[in-house]
Amino acid sequence: MNLENIKKVDPAIAEYIEKELERQQTTIELIASENFTSKAVMEACGTVLTNKYAEGKPNKRYYNGCEQIDKIEALAQERAQKLFGMAHANVQPHSGAQANMAVFMAVLKPGDTVLSMDLSNGGHLSHGSPVNFSGMYFNVVSYGVDDNGSIDYENVRQLAVQNKPKLIICGASNYSKVIDFKKFREIADEVGAYLLADIAHIAGLIAGGVHPSPAGYAHFVTTTTHKTLRGPRGGITMCDEEYAQMIDKAVFPGMQGGPLEHIIAGKAIALLEASQPSFKEYAQNIVKNAKALAQGLLDNGMDIVGGMTENHLMTLDLRKTGKTGKDMANVLEEVGITANKNTVPNDPQSPFVTSGIRLGAAAVTTRGFDEAAMREVARIIATAIKNSDNESVLKQLKEDSLALCKKFPLYE
After folding, report:
1. Of the listed 222, 223, 224, 365, which one is catalytic?
2. Of residues 233, 291, 358, 367, which has the active-site annotation?
3. Catalytic residue among 198, 248, 273, 400
4. Sequence-separated (6 or more) residues with CB below 8 Å from residue 173
5. Of the candidates 99, 157, 94, which has an alpha carbon nearest to the alpha carbon of residue 124?
6. Confidence class of residue 412 from pLDDT cuts 50, 70 and 90?
7. Among 119, 192, 296, 300, which is least packed, fewest CB within 10 Å?
8. Which of 185, 227, 230, 375 does the annotation list as catalytic?
């Protein structure tokens, strides 16, 4: 990583960047919403494209000098449409939350009813949390998961029939099972609702063919680009052709100004990478590694919400250990594993404390971790939780995790 110019201008920032690189290289990254981009994606995000203002759409800008910008953004759109089988893609949203906001602004009015997954059961803030715009301005009805950690589709249908939502959202930030988009569309059609599939967490799995696609079922599909898709931080909103103009107007001028064209270039590269045969192998390996991690945790006496994962993530249920997600996430960081505290269904703890830890396999799979390595990671996690007050054990586990990082180097 060349930081020569940054070191000349701002040595403090250069130092912090170098230390962050070292942290990433020497830490086992299990945060399910994180990944490592290719060097090509990072290079694109640091180009002269950051200098250009480009309000509007390709070939319909409010600023001159956008000839090359238009080509780049149009290419990103085409690649997103082809990869996910959607008629239209707007690649300008700065984040997944804004990608979702575009749909809300396009088809809803304040006070309209939305049916979505409850945050504590695996939903996302932008699906209707009361602290988010989606919950502040809309009437949100929530569905959850059953004792097996699965969506009860009949319950979703009953809630839809009772509440007549204008928009139904499927997709989650912490759901370890395969989503049945067909069932969701059937429910949406029965009550005359739009269907939004938020595939932020599973976009890379869909692109790689290891999870069903919402194309043909959802009216709108949103995603981030920085999770399993392995691109830069940003969002994309896709839709059927009849809603294209509504979505484009919602993005600009509805909710944001000039697009980040350097990030859009990074998105274009990531979308190209995700269309390659090697990415299909990567997606397959993510699922294999996630299952190996889950099974390893179970074999070491841990509990997993739903018993097993069907995608890239899982939630470690700590209730029987008497320990909290907040404390154990800190313990895992002490031994060189980064994860995040997370609620479990019907969690007795607050969202700031939690009884669970969310774990994901996408980032470590990018590094090259295999199933044997994931079983070793499971051992380290379980041992750390069981011995959270034993500094000598934790010190040894830190060495074990560092040995794994050295075996699978990052950004050589």
Report:
1. 224
2. 233
3. 198
4. 33, 122, 123, 124, 200, 201
5. 99
6. confident
7. 192
8. 227
Amino acid letter for position 297? L
pLDDT per residue over 241-280, tens digit each? Answer: 999 999 999 999 999 999 999 999 999 999 999 999 999 9
Q: Strands of 340-342's sheet, edge to edge?
A: 303-304, 313-317, 356-360, 340-342
Annotated catalytic residue within 18, 34, 43, 55: 55
Asked about 224 being catalytic, the answer comes back as: yes
pTM above 0.70, yes or no: yes
Determine the Cα–Cα distance for residues 263 and 252; give it in Å rounded to an integer: 17
Catalytic residue among 7, 53, 152, 326: 53
Q: Decide if 55 is catalytic.
A: yes
Lowest mean pLDDT among 5-9, 55-59, 127-131, 197-201: 127-131
Number of C-beta neighbours around residue 332 at 10 A: 26
The pair of three-digit structure tokens given for residue 171, joined into one six-digit string: 């997709």
β-strands 194-198, 220-224: how paired?
A: parallel
In sequence order, what DSSP letters do the residues of 225-275 get, joined into one string? SSSTT---S-EEEEE-GGGHHHHHHIIIIII-SS--HHHHHHHHHHHHHHT
Torsion over CA: 360, 364, 369, 373 (sign): negative
Look up 147 and say whether it is catalytic. Answer: no
CA distance 174 to 345: 11
* Contact in structure between 225 and 233 (CB atoms under 8 Å): yes
**60 flagged as catalytic:** no
